[in-house]
Structures are given as structure tokens and as C-alpha cells.
Amino acid sequence: MAAQLFLPVVDKVLLQTLLTLFVVMVLVVGWQYKRLQRMSEGLFYIEKNIYLRSTVTSTLFGIAGGILGSLLLLLFGIDLSGMGIVYLFIVAILLMLFHPRFLCFAYAGGLLCLSNILFGVPHIAVPQLLGLVAVLHMVESVLILVSGHLDPIPVYVRRNDGPVVGGFNLQKFWPIPLVAVMSAAGVESSGITFSTPHWWPLMKTYTEMAPEAGYALLPVLAILGYGEVATTAAPRVKARYSARNLFVFSLVLLFLAVLASHYPALSILPAVFAPLGHELVLWIGLKTESLGEPIFVMPETGVMILDVLPGSLAAVAGLASGDVVVSVNGVVVSNRRELQHILQFTWGRLNLEVRRGQQTRYFSVQKRPREVLGIILVPESSADRYLSFAGDSRLARVVSLFRRPRV
What's the domain count of the chain? Predict the structure, then answer.
């Protein structure tokens, strides 16, 4: 017999509470973006003023991600009841005390499920919990693919105690409104009732339910985050690469979770794969970044642009990150100081010869006295201020700021 799926009538107080919490989440996301912007301003003494735009776009993408996540949760019938959400949060917070990168449900969920399989505690639904972890990571991978590269923050980074190079700090936060399934044994349906197909849910449950019981659709709020420093590839390329690896991990984990829901003896497979597979994703990303050649460095000729400020003269003219300024008004520039001197003491029409990839392009800018062009240049071998990041953290999270280069 097909299961019953109903949408209960949401109490006005509960609805207002959820809306308030979502607004608070959006404000927290905005505060995080403003904090990151101030970090960049401290490095380059510039004001980019894009944190409001980043907040709005992240919220819109988060809502879209919530729709995708809700569809996946409903399609697979991942039941929130009995999966030990409280345990998941507690273990994740405890793991964070050892290292910030362990604040991830892949580790907490894997440990909880292994404890359940080996010792019988806590009493949780292993396939359901790991299915939730897989869906959240799948949504995260899609969000990284479509928006992880947007509004990257330019930084100077010291890699592996080597020279300071240019790069981008890719930090994203998405407030996610979800609709999840929860078994409603003994709860009378008081809302809209739907009949489900006989094959549903794909994620089988072995919880005994009364014949008149079914599944309720309930609203859930979450925040997904992504952090990465890109020095060996452009932000779009880096985000696409990370999204692909994370999607493959989540797809395999979801398959193993569904398999375990049909064959409980195989529950050990997703429980082990969750933390180990996530570690593999991080290891691949770390090796790619640490062994790759940085691309935002001073070329043999000319001066490379790391970033262009939105709305600036350079942005309006069409200059972009990665462009190499070869000459200004016919005067060849070979280092940062020469270019900065010309831009500071020259106004009127500026004719720039720029190398973009294998092509040479020409741009014209009308500059007034004391008006800035709006470009951030890549560093030379050293810089007054730069960031250091932990090589073993999740996607190279920044751990210390504004360190002066050692003499």
C-alpha cells in the first residue's frame, strides 16, 4: 500500500519564528561578507563595497538550493525522525574543537553511524542520516558550481613558506530553507494529503508505523558554507573543479546510503566512506593547490592585474583579472613601481597596451587628476601585508591575517 504524505497546517507563530530565523541567518551571512571585505580592505587600502550584493545573491542562490535539496529529500524519502540530528550537531561541535575543518556532517555523521554499528549507540537510522549528509553536500556542490566563483576576494598569500603570490579567497555562505520528510506515526493529518507512488520512498525505513500514519512535510533551515583560496587557477575554474569532486563524493555516498537502507548489513559502507571520502576530496584539492604553479605572479614583461574594482575606470574600460599591462601611452612598464608612478602622475587620456593570453589589446581611459584607475596588481616576491593559510584545512581556510614578511 502506498504511503500517505501530508502537509500539516503551519501555526502562525511557528511560521513567524521560521521567517525571523531566516532573516537572522541572512543578516549573519551579510556580516560574514562584510568581515571578509574589511579583511581585503586592510590588505589593499581600497573599498570594494560588494558585501550587500554578495548577501543578496547568496540568499537567492540559497533559496534555489533549498528547492533542489527539498526535491532530493522528498524524492528519496529521507526521514528526519530517528536519525539523531541533536547527536549530529553535538559531535560536529566537539570535532571542531580539534580542528575547524572537522565541523562537517560527513565526519560527525560517519562517527555516529560507526558507533551505532559497532556498539549499538546511539540509536539512529544510519542510512537516513548519511542520506541527509549526502544531499546537503550535493546541494553544496551545485551551489559552488553556479556561484562559488562570484565576487572573489583578492588576497596576497604566502604559499608553503615561499614567495608571496596573488590569489582569491573564495568564501561563500548560503542560507537554505528546506522542506523535509518526517514520519508522523500517531499524528492526525490536519493539512493537505497526497498519495505517494508504490515505489516511494527510495530510502527504505524499518520503523514500525501505524496503518493510518504517514509522512509529514516540515520546514527546516540550514546554512551551507564554502571556503577556498585559489592561487593556481582562476576562481571560476577552481570552483568548478571543487564542485565536481564534491558532487562525485555526494553521489557515491547517496548511492551507498540507499543501498544500506535496502540491505542493512551494508551500512558499514556509507559509514566508512563518509569521513574517508570527504578526506580524499580535501586531499585532492590540497595537492592540486600546493603542487600547482601559481598564476597570479609577476610576468617576465609587464605588470599583471590581480583584480579590477567594480564600477572603476578600469572596469568600465574592460580590463580584467589576469591582464598584463605592457605599456601606458607608449611607455613600457616592467614593474609595479613604474606602473604606479605613471598612473599617479598622469591624467587625461591613458592608452594602455595589454596582453590577454596570447592576444594584445588596447584600452583607452579618460582619467582626471587624483582619480584612481581601480586595479589591484599582483605582488612581487614580497609584500608588506599578506595572508597565511593552513594547508591542511578544508579548502585552505585562512587562519592568520596581516603577517609581515620575515626579513
Answer: 2
